[in-house]
Design goal:
With 686 residues, this protein is mostly beta strands. The protein contains five helices and 40 strands. The strands form seven sheets. The chain has a 22-stranded antiparallel barrel. β4 and β5 form a beta hairpin. The protein is globular.
C-alpha cells in the first residue's frame, strides 16, 4: 500500500491549505457534494434511502440497509461479519452467475468495487457517515462510468449539519460482540468543514454450518473490523470548492474451520474540484489499494479432521482513476453534460497449494492489469410535462500483462510459465429515457439501454474453493454486454406518499458464471485435487442470461411516522451451449424469484423505534439448480429511549424469530446470522 501514501498526505493537507487565512474573509457556503444529478434521471427507476434510515438500522451494516430496495442482492445472503469478502459483489435484477458486481457503487463519485475482484468491502462504509444512498435500477448510465450493467448505487457523505459536532455510540451484543462508532465535524473560520468517522466491531461469531452438518472441526466464526474516514471541504475562490477524502479499513474473519482465516485491508484517497458557476464542472482523481489473504481447508468426510488446501497468502491490488465532466450553460429547458474518465487496475494472487503433511509443495503467482478509458455525453430536454434524456459513452479497454507462474516450493524450474497475450477492444454504452407528468400525481416513464462490463482480474486469474468444491479461473473471458428496456409509473396520490411500479426486460450476453465441468475425486487444471465430495467448476462465458420482472416500491412520511416497502419479482434464465449446455433454461446461481422488504418507524427527536420485515425467496446455490436454498422471513427492530441530556438507550434486534437463513450448500449447508440482540448507549450533545 506504500504507493498510495503520498496521495493520502496530499488529500489530508489540501483542504487545510485551501482555507482562507483570515476569519475576516467572507464565508463561502460549500456543500461537499458533486454536480447535481441530471434532471433526466426522472425517466429511470430510482429509489433514495435517506439518512434517518441509514442511522437507525438494527445491524448497523450498509449491506443490510441496501436490502430495503428489493432486487439488490449480494451473491450470498450472509453479511460482512460472516461471509467471505469475495462473495460480496452487488447486483440487481437477477443479473448474476457469480459474485462479481454488476451494479456500479460509488462514494462521492469514486468507484468502490475492489480493484482485483469487483466485490465491495462493506466494513469500510459506516452508514452513519452517509447523507443518502441513491439507487438507480437499470444499466447504460453513460455518465457514471463503465460497469453499470444492472444499475448504480451512489453513496453521498454527510456534512456537519447532519453529523453534528460530535456523536458516539457503543453497543454490546450476542456472542460477546462489541460495536463502537464515533463521528465528529468541525467548521473552521472562513468556510469549509472537516469530518471524521470511525467504527470498531468484533464478535466471537456463530457456527456457520447448520447443526446437523457440524463435526469436530467446526467452531464459531469470529470477526474483528475497523474503519476510519477523514474528509475535508474548502472554498478555493469564486464558486469552486475542493473536496478531499481519505479512508481505510481492516477486516479479519474466520470461516468456522481452522486454516480458513480471511484478512483484508485497504486505503482510499481522492481529490475532487467542483465548480458551481455558470459553467459547472468537476475534476476527480483517486487511488485505491487493497490486500487480501485467504486460506482454504480440506475437511474429511466425517468432519473430524482438517488441513490446509490452498493458501492465498497475499492478493495485492491497486486502482487509480481520474474523471472530468463539464456542464455548460444551456438554458432552463436543456441540460448538457460532457466528460471523460480513466481507470487502471492491477493485481495478482500469490498462493501456496498441494499440501503434503500440512506443508505446501507448490506456489503460484497469477495476475495482470486492465485499463478502461472513455468519453461520455448526456443531454436532457424538458418541455412542459415532458422530459427526454439521452446519454452515451464509448470506451477503450485493454487487458494486459497477464501471467501464470507455478513452481515447486523447493525451488527449481517453473512447472508452468505462461504470458497471456494482451487484448483490447471498444465498447459502447447508451441510454435513452422519457418521463411524462400526466398530472401532478402521475408520472409515466420508459427507458432503453446498452451496457458492458470487463472481466475482473479475479475472474481472469484467481481460483478459489468453497467446502469441497473448487473453481478455476479463466484468462480468456470476454466482456459481458447488456441490453434492456423498462417502463414504469410513479404515483403521488397524497402528500408524503410515493408509489412506484416498474417492469423490465434485460439480456446479458457473454454472462460470466461458474460452470460445473466435473466431479471428484481427481486432479483438475487450475485447482489441483478435488475430493469425491466436491465438484470442479471454471468461470466461463455463457451465451446469455435473460431476465424480466417487476418492481414495486412505496415511501411514506407523515410527521414522526415513516414507512417503506419494496417487492421485486425476477424471472432470470440461462441460455447456454457447448460445455455449459446442461445449464440451458435454468436459473442463475443465487438468484431468487421473489424478494421483499417493509419498514415502519416512529421518530420524534432522539426517541423512537422501527421494525423491518424481510422476505428472501428460495434460490439455487449452484449452476445446475440442484442445491436449493430455502426461503426465509426475518424481523429486525430498533428502540431508542432518551435517559439523560444527549444520552439515549439503544436496543436493537436482528432476526428476532431466529429464522434459518441458508447461504450456501456444498457437501454441507451454511447459514447467515442467527438472532442477535444488542444493548447500547448513544451520545450526541444538544
Amino acid at each position: 500500500m506504500r504507493a498510495c501514501w503520498p496521495m493520502v498526505g496530499l488529500a489530508l493537507a489540501a483542504p487545510v491549505a485551501a482555507m482562507p487565512a483570515s476569519a475576516q474573509e467572507a464565508e463561502i457556503v460549500v456543500t461537499g457534494e458533486g454536480l447535481a444529478p441530471p434532471p433526466g434521471d426522472a425517466a429511470y427507476a430510482t429509489v433514495t434511502i435517506e439518512r434517518d434510515r441509514l442511522a437507525n438500522s438494527a445491524s448497523g451494516r450498509l449491506e443490510d440497509i441496501l436490502a430495503d430496495v428489493a432486487g439488490i442482492a449480494q451473491f450470498r445472503r450472509s453479511d460482512s461479519r460472516s461471509a467471505h469478502p469475495t462473495s460480496q459483489g452487488v447486483t440487481l435484477r437477477g443479473l448474476g452467475g457469480n459474485a462479481s458486481s454488476r451494479a456500479l457503487l460509488t462514494l462521492d463519485g469514486v468507484p468502490q468495487a475492489d480493484p482485483f475482484g469487483g466485490w465491495v468491502a462493506f466494513p469500510a462504509y459506516l452508514p452513519e457517515r452517509l447523507a443518502r444512498v441513491r439507487v438507480t435500477r437499470g444499466g447504460g448510465s453513460g455518465i457514471s462510468g463503465p460497469g453499470a450493467l444492472a444499475g448504480t448505487i451512489d453513496l453521498t457523505s454527510a456534512g456537519p449539519d447532519m453529523l453534528g459536532p460530535f456523536g458516539g455510540a457503543f453497543h454490546y451484543g450476542s456472542r460477546n460482540s462489541f460495536d463502537a462508532v464515533a463521528t465528529a465535524a468541525l467548521r473552521p473560520a472562513g468556510g469549509g468543514f472537516v469530518t471524521i468517522a470511525g467504527q470498531y466491531a468484533r464478535g466471537d461469531g456463530f457456527q456457520p454450518l447448520v447443526p446437523g452438518d457440524r463435526g469436530l472441526v467446526d467452531h464459531a466464526a469470529p470477526y474483528e473490523q475497523a474503519s476510519l474516514a477523514l474528509r475535508g471541504v474548502a472554498p478555493i475562490g469564486g464558486a469552486t470548492e475542493l473536496q478531499a477524502n481519505v479512508s481505510g479499513f481492516v477486516d479479519r474473519r474466520n470461516r468456522g474451520v481452522d486454516f480458513v482465516d480471511v484478512k483484508s485491508e485497504g486505503v482510499d484517497a481522492s481529490l475532487r474540484l467542483v465548480g458551481r458557476g455558470a459553467w459547472q464542472w468537476s475534476a476527480l482523481g483517486y487511488v485505491q489499494t487493497r490486500v487480501l489473504a485467504s486460506g482454504f481447508a480440506s475437511v474429511s468426510d466425517a468432519r473430524d479432521s482438517a488441513g490446509p488446501a490452498l493458501d492465498q497468502y497475499n492478493v495485492p491490488s491497486t486502482g487509480i482513476g481520474a474523471r472530468f465532466e463539464l456542464q455548460p450553460p444551456t438554458g432552463a429547458a436543456l441540460t448538457l453534460r460532457l466528460g471523460g474518465d480513466l481507470r487502471h487496475v492491477e493485481g495478482e494472487t500469490r498462493e501456496r497449494y498441494i499440501f503434503v503433511s500440512g506443508d505446501p509443495t507448490r506456489q503460484r503467482r497469477a495476475g495482470g492489469n486492465s485499463v478502461t478509458t472513455g468519453g461520455f455525453a448526456s443531454i436532457g430536454w424538458r418541455s412542459g410535462p415532458l422530459m427526454l434524456d439521452a446519454s452515451g459513452r464509448i470506451d477503450y479497454w485493454r487487458i494486459g500483462r497477464g501471467r501464470l507462474i507455478e513452481q515447486p516450493m523447493a525451488g527449481g524450474p517453473a512447472l508452468t510459465d505462461i504470458a497471456y497475450a494482451s487484448r483490447t477492444g471498444w465498447e459502447p454504452t447508451g441510454r435513452v429515457g422519457a418521463a411524462l407528468a400526466a398530472s401532478p400525481a402521475i408520472t409515466l416513464r420508459a427507458a432503453g439501454y446498452l451496457g458492458w462490463r470487463l472481466p475482473t482480474l479475479n475472474e481472469l486469474y484467481r481460483p478459489y474453493r468453497v467446502g469441497a468444491d473448487a473453481t478455476a479461473a479463466n484468462a480468456d473471458l470476454d466482456p459481458e454486454r447488456l441490453r434492456g428496456v423498462e417502463a414504469g409509473i410513479d404515483l403521488r396520490p397524497v402528500q408524503g406518499l410515493l408509489l412506484s411500479a416498474t417492469g423490465f426486460w434485460n439480456r446479458l450476453d457473454n454472462a460470466i458464471a461458474n460452470v460445473t465441468l466435473g466431479s471428484g475425486p481427481g486432479s483438475f487444471p487450475g485447482v489441483g485435487y478435488v475430493s469425491g465430495a466436491g465438484l470442479y467448476r471454471q468461470r466461463r462465458n455463457l451465451d446469455s442470461v435473460e431476465a424480466h420482472g417487476a418492481e414495486l416500491d412505496a415511501r411514506w412520511r407523515s410527521g414522526p411516522w415513516t414507512a417503506s416497502a419494496s417487492w421485486a419479482w425476477t424471472d432470470s434464465r440461462v441460455h447456454a451451449s457447448g460445455a455449459a449446455a446442461p445449464l440451458d433454461g435454468l436459473r442463475p446461481a443465487q438468484v431468487a424469484r421473489h424478494s421483499a422488504s417493509a419498514s415502519l418507524g416512529w421518530w420524534r427527536g432522539a426517541a423512537g423505534g422501527a421494525v423491518t420485515l424481510r422476505y428472501a425467496g428460495p434460490r439455487f446455490d449452484d449452476d445446475r439448480n440442484v442445491a436449493r436454498l430455502n426461503d426465509a422471513v426475518t424481523l429486525d427492530a430498533v428502540l431508542r429511549v432518551p435517559i439523560a441530556a444527549g444520552i439515549v438507550l439503544d436496543l436493537r434486534g436482528e432476526n428476532l424469530f431466529d429464522r434459518r437463513i441458508e447461504t450456501g450448500i456444498s457437501d454441507v449447508t451454511e447459514r447467515a446470522s442467527p438472532r442477535t440482540l444488542w444493548i447500547g448507549l448513544r451520545y450526541a450533545p444538544r
